[in-house]
Design a protein that fits this description.
about 180 residues
Length: about 180
């Protein structure tokens, strides 16, 4: 493993342990040349995947790119990082075990949308707006309508007795409380 600081070819492993969800091995390394310390993660890769983009271009699958796109959708949302890691690992595992060496970017996008829908509604809408290339407010309204139908289908009272959030149409129409909205120039 090359040192990310000085580029030295030989680094030493000082500590190895499984990650929190045991899907990877976390290794602490040190460079004997510059003394730099860094962490690497080792994951099982079942097969080499190639992503077929909409443009027809083929690129290698990049788990880190998948992680970054989900992180962008979840920015400033309070979601447990362990749940996010399970989502990314689950999508990756499903793609690798699918039997195909080539997967379309649409299949990846749909898998991410499905996972985000169960994780966080706001992140789902954010991701969908970019993935489906929304052009106007009607696109958002249509997507929010499908979310509203899903929420209405879940029943009136949850089993633990918590209050159910207002249906989407009522929540949008309700007046805001607190500070008034700032005017934008």
């Amino acid at each position: 493993m090359r040192c990310p600081f000085c580029g030295g070819p030989d680094t030493q492993v000082k500590d190895s342990r499984p990650s929190e969800d045991s899907s990877a091995i976390r290794r602490r390394r040190v460079c004997p040349d510059c003394g730099g310390r860094f962490t690497t993660f080792e994951r099982v890769q079942l097969r080499e995947l190639v992503v077929l983009k909409r443009s027809g271009k083929r690129v290698p699958f990049d788990r880190d790119k998948l992680q970054r796109s989900i992180d962008v959708a979840l920015r400033k949302r309070t979601v447990d990082p362990e749940r996010v890691e399970r989502l990314v690992s689950g999508i990756t595992r499903r793609l690798e075990s699918g039997g195909e060496g080539e997967v379309t970017s649409e299949a990846i996008g749909e898998a991410v949308m499905e996972g985000l829908k169960g994780l966080d509604d706001v992140a789902y809408v954010r991701f969908a707006s970019v993935y489906k290339n929304f052009r106007e407010a009607q696109d958002f309204q249509d997507l929010l309508g499908t979310l509203g139908e899903r929420l209405e289908g879940e029943g009136d009272l949850p089993e633990d007795g918590e209050a159910v959030p207002a249906p989407l149409d009522e929540a949008v129409a309700a007046p805001r409380r607190g500070r008034p909205a700032r005017k934008r120039a």
